[in-house]
Amino acid sequence: MNKREVQKRVLTNGKPLALNLFTWDEKTKTLSSKEDSLVIDFDGVNGCTFETGSYCTFTTGFDCVFKAGRGCVFSTESRCTFKTEFDCVFKTGGHCTFKTEFDCVFKTGCGCAFETGHGCVVVRTDPHEVIKLKEGQKIKLNGYGVKGFTIVKT
């Protein structure tokens, strides 16, 4: 994709983002913008990297990397890496890695790893279990449909 094609997929207030407000590297498939409140629709596009401001909404394929500000919403396929601030909502496939601050909600497939701030709980809907974590505690959940977890030694 060239920059004009990317522009059609990056909207602000329902209109394409001005070309001078973002960069696009065709080789690395990296989109960079300091703008907030973007709607980025890369549905079916894999292997991209996004660096944006806050309150952005992302729809992408798999193998994507996100570095975003606060209040972002993600809907992606699998094997993505996220580094965000707080108040984010994630809906992803499996095998994703998350490093966030607070007030984030995750709905994911299996094989995901999370690094979060304080006051987090794990809610498993498959065995209907709520797990309260101690600060700094790392756990590995038991298999699908099986309650409980194992504390991971650090």
Structure notes:
It contains 1 helix and 18 strands. The model has no long low-confidence stretch (mean pLDDT 89). It has 2 domains: 3-117, no CATH class; 119-154, no CATH class. The chain starts with a helix and ends with a strand. The strands form 4 sheets. The protein has a 7-stranded mixed beta sheet, with no helix packed on it. The chain has a 7-stranded mixed beta sheet with strand order 3-4-6-8-10-12-14, with no helix packed on it. A two-stranded antiparallel sheet has the order 15-16. With 154 residues, it is mainly β. It has one helix spanning 3-7; strands at residues 10-12, 15-16, 23-25, 30-32, 38-42, 49-51, 57-60, 65-67, 73-75, 81-83, 89-91, 97-99, 105-107, 113-115, 121-124, 129-132, 139-141, 149-151. 3% of the residues lie in helices and 38% in strands.
